[in-house]
Write a structure and sequence with these properties.
Strand order of the largest sheet: 1-4
Radius of gyration: 16 Å
Number of strands: 4
Largest sheet: 2 strands, parallel
Order of helices and strands: HHEEEHHEH
Length: about 140
């Protein structure tokens, strides 16, 4: 039976081996990868399966869940990131991850350190990234 929710296992995908292979290759060979396509064609599924099946430390973030009042909320975005950090059990000495006292760049630094220590690549997958347009001018100060 058809299930419209994004898939997380390769065997749940239909006829997407080429796209899956290309994305998994891109995750480890390029610092930025953008997956584009029309709505409802399986992009989220390809992202999730790629993160689950590759040797990267994958963190999936649905940007829509960070929306509050028509804008991207720093707190909601940090909550998603920190929730994923707890899931992969990051414990770095001397760093306490709390929503109120940590900046997004601090989170990225911790992730980078975590990956380096484990000799693995950390991949942040921002699904529905077009919603970042609602982040406002803060995006330039946070990410650049």
């Amino acid at each position: 039976m058809f299930d419209p929710r994004p898939k997380e296992k390769r065997e749940e995908l239909f006829d997407r081996e080429k796209e899956l292979s290309e994305l998994m290759h891109s995750l480890v060979n390029y610092s930025i990868t953008v997956l584009l396509g029309i709505r409802r064609t399986g992009k989220s599924s390809i992202i999730k399966v790629s993160l689950n099946e590759s040797d990267v430390i994958g963190i999936y973030i649905d940007v829509r869940r960070a929306m509050r009042g028509g804008r991207i909320s720093d707190e909601k975005l940090k909550t998603q990131l920190l929730g994923n950090l707890r899931r992969i059990k990051i414990k770095e000495p001397g760093i306490k991850l709390e929503l109120t006292s940590i900046d997004l760049t601090d989170i990225f630094d911790v992730l980078n350190s975590y990956g380096k220590k484990r000799k693995r690549i950390v991949v942040l997958a921002f699904d529905e990234a077009q919603y970042f347009r609602f982040y406002g001018a803060k995006v330039a100060r946070t990410f650049y």
